[in-house]
Amino acid sequence: MRHTLLTIMAVLLTMSASQSATAQTRIGEKTILPACEYLNTELDGSLTVRSYGDGKRHKDAREQARKNAVYQIMFKGLQAKGQTIRPLVNEANAYERHEAYFGTFFADGGTYSEYATSEDEKFTAKKRDHGRTQNIHGAVVRVKRSELKARLIRDGILPPEK
Fold it and tell me: What secondary structure does DSSP assign to the chain, as a single string?
């Protein structure tokens, strides 16, 4: 009897754990996608990441995925196969302090596009949200990290290297 009770409790615990893992990826009907996934570092210092974006049209979703990749590398950093790739901008509240600069940098067709190239694109899904259709787009993006860092130093966002 005791063994049966323990077995039932173990099964219930396993079922609740699997349901909570599903709940972490879905909130209501909205699917939560990771911001960026590290794939590779090239010999020239550029990073290859898988990034996701959403938008009303396919083009908007693709552009948002590229913006998300650059933003992640600049401000958040990446977790990479047992190591951490630090963000380029370590200053606290840097986005807010240089809001005018980053507003034009990340504008549609802005400067960020010089540092992010899409290597492989995959249209992921369409979702409906309150009657509006949103495209979710996944792309493998190559971000020229060393060139981006040089640009931020030249524009006075990062201090010059010693």
Answer: -HHHHHHHHHHHHHHHHHHHHHHHHEETTEEP--SEEEEEE-TTS-EEEEEEEEESSHHHHHHHHHHHHHHIIIII-EEETTEEE--S--STTHHHHTHHHHHHHTSTT-GGGGTEEEEEEEEEEEEEETTEEEEEEEEEEEE-HHHHHHHHHHTTSSPPP-
